[in-house]
Design brief:
The protein has one domain: 2-enoyl-CoA Hydratase, Chain A, domain 1, CATH 3.90.226. The protein is about 50% helix and about 15% strand. The strands form two sheets. It has a six-stranded mixed β-sheet with strand order 1-2-3-4-6-8, with helices on both faces. A two-stranded parallel ribbon has the order 5-7. β2, α1 and β3 form a beta-alpha-beta unit. α5 packs across α6. The radius of gyration is 17 Å and the shape is globular.
Length: about 260
């Protein structure tokens, strides 16, 4: 638990996959791999009609890649392995034969924005600002980029990528398609997610699987594409710029 975990529960046709990490729900490699497996397993479960992806706590939905793990990467191979974890989660969502609903309860950063865009439908609290922070540490949103661009279009993806210090409000994200709907309270957010999940669980699984295929048409090359993007990030993370940038961010965070 001290280094993060993932749990999955199934009830009434609804699988809920919940991840957590004590550092603002950041994502080390083992959490990414566990999340991907939980989503894959839920998709294979004949009793599951819909998946909800959420995180624990009342602070950040997701702080993105774990800085501790990033600074420990010392080879291109290890970099590829780490960033492939994001690819595995996105591809698990893409390939699941059921809809995946995201519960974005608060601010999300970097890879967390990728998760919000990868899910089929993201519902959010009004505090759920978003920031693609990767360029600020010398990498770039390469692996999550296709998911963000698919949801928002190239122009918005480019703007988010090129303004890594800017927090975009939940309303801004809703206007650009990242969030389907934004709610003023967590209670309202949870009621909407519960209601929509129950509704989807009552529909034909065959029809939903076919619809999912239609909606994700054009992404059939993502197994290869996201692996190529992971290799780019895995190479760039070894740079002196990235090492120094992460050290600065960690020092600033320690002062808060």
């Amino acid at each position: 638990m001290s280094d993060g975990s993932v749990k999955s529960e199934v009830a009434n046709g609804i699988a809920t996959v919940t991840f957590q990490h004590p550092k603002s729900n950041s994502l080390p490699g083992h959490v990414l791999r566990s999340m991907a497996k939980a989503i894959e397993d839920a998709g294979k479960d004949q009793d599951v009609r819909v998946i909800i992806l959420r995180s624990e706590g009342d602070k950040a939905f997701c702080a993105g890649a774990s800085f501790d793990e990033l600074v420990a990467i010392d080879s291109k191979e290890k970099g590829l392995e780490f960033f492939s974890g994001f690819a595995q989660v996105i591809n698990a969502i893409r390939k699941a034969p059921v809809f995946v609903i995201g519960r974005i309860h608060s601010h999300t950063v970097g890879g967390g924005v990728g998760l919000a865009c990868a899910v089929d439908i993201a519902y959010a609290h009004e505090s759920a600002s978003a920031r693609l922070s990767e360029l600020a540490i010398g990498i770039g949103p390469f692996v999550v980029g296709p998911a963000v661009e698919r949801k928002t279009g190239a122009g918005t993806f480019g703007l988010l990528s090129a303004t890594p210090a800017v927090r975009r409000t939940a309303a801004w994200c809703e206007q650009r398609g990242i969030y389907a709907e934004v709610f003023p309270t967590l209670e309202a957010l949870d009621l909407r997610i519960e209601g929509h999940a129950k509704e989807l669980a009552s529909y034909s699984p065959d029809a939903m699987a076919e619809l999912k295929n239609v909606l994700w048409r054009g992404t059939e090359n993502w197994d290869t594409l996201l692996a190529e993007r992971a290799a780019i990030s895995g190479r760039l993370v070894l740079s002196e710029f990235t090492r120094n940038a992460i050290a600065r961010f960690k020092a600033e965070a320690a002062k808060r």
